[in-house]
Input
Amino acid sequence: MYVCICNGVTDHQIREAAAGGCDSVAELTMRTGCGANCGSCLDMAAGLLEQARATRELPLPLPLFAAA
Output
């Protein structure tokens, strides 16, 4: 879905930017142009970026070993 209509930025592009290490909305704007014009998309973009970052930062589960 399009998040930033002004610059044609999609939710997929925001998730890709997050996967590539994008850590802030300001950096997202520099990378994709999202929010650079009218700014009405910034709340949604920030939410998607945070969601993607949280998913990326989930630790892998540790295996449980039974005591012998």
